[in-house]
Every structure is written in structure tokens, then in C-alpha cells.
Amino acid sequence: AWELEREFWKESGAGNAGAFYQRHMISDGYVVIPSGVVSRDELISKWNQHRPVRSYELGEPRFTLVDGSNVVITYHVTMDSEWLPDYSAWMTAFYTWEGAGWALAVRAHTPGAAFPF
């Protein structure tokens, strides 16, 4: 599943993120972004309209295996693109084992911000 997360970012840099979602996301999957929830079909359409990500850096992942067939991955990402400059967020991705491999079910963005905890 972590290899797929890394592949997503490589694909976003090559302008192929829409194709990633088409190949690796379950049909009713979605992504939670700061402005709302975006369905798989919307993700494919929107990413196909965006220019490629110019650069990105992934932090060390944390994994939580849930019942052997689901995994939650959390990591930090910084990225830069023409349409989203200097973005920084904590990512949480939920993958499920489907058939012969992992499939993305949900990804959520939590933008970095001051939080007195």
C-alpha cells in the first residue's frame, strides 16, 4: 500500500494522477480535502485538468494494520504546483485488500496549522 502512495505522487508529477485513481481506487472511494469531499470520478476529472505537480517530498509513514486486510497510512507531504503552491499537509490514506492487491478507499488531507496541544 505504501508503494501505491508513493506511486501516486510520482504519477502526479508526471501528469498521470487521474489515471492512478482510475487504476487503484475503489469505485466508491473519495478524498477529503480542506474544501470538502471529492469522489473518485471527480478526482479523475479534476486531476486530468491540472498541470503536473512540480515537486513533492514525503515524510516517514506510520502504518496501522486493521484486521489483516486493511491498512491506514499517515505521513506528511509538502508539494508545489502551479495550481496549489507551497502546500503542506498530513495525509491519511486507507487501503483495503481487493482481489490481488491493495486499493485506495479514502485519503484525507489535514493541512498544517498551529495547534496548542
Describe this structure as you would to a colleague.
By secondary structure, the protein is of the alpha+beta class. Helices cover 26% and strands 48% of the residues. It contains three helices and seven strands. The chain has helices spanning 2-13, 17-24, 40-49, and strands at residues 25-33, 36-39, 55-58, 62-66, 70-80, 87-98, 101-111. Strands 1, 2, 3, 4, 5, 6 and 7 form a seven-stranded mixed β-sheet that branches. Strand 1 and strand 2 (36-39) form a beta hairpin. The longest helix is centred in the N-terminal third of the chain and has 12 residues, at 2-13. The protein is globular. It starts with a helix and ends in a 6-residue tail after the last strand. The model has no long low-confidence stretch (mean pLDDT 95).
Q: Note the run of SSEs as H and E.
A: HHEEHEEEEE
What is the alpha-carbon Rg in Å?
14 Å
E-strand count: 7
The mean pLDDT is 95
* Beta-strand share of residues: over 45%
Low-confidence segments: none
Shape: globular
Helix vs. strand class: alpha+beta
Q: How much helical structure, as a percent, in the residues?
A: 25-40%
| Largest sheet composition | 7 strands, mixed
Q: How many helices?
A: 3
For the termini, the CA-CA separation is 30 Å
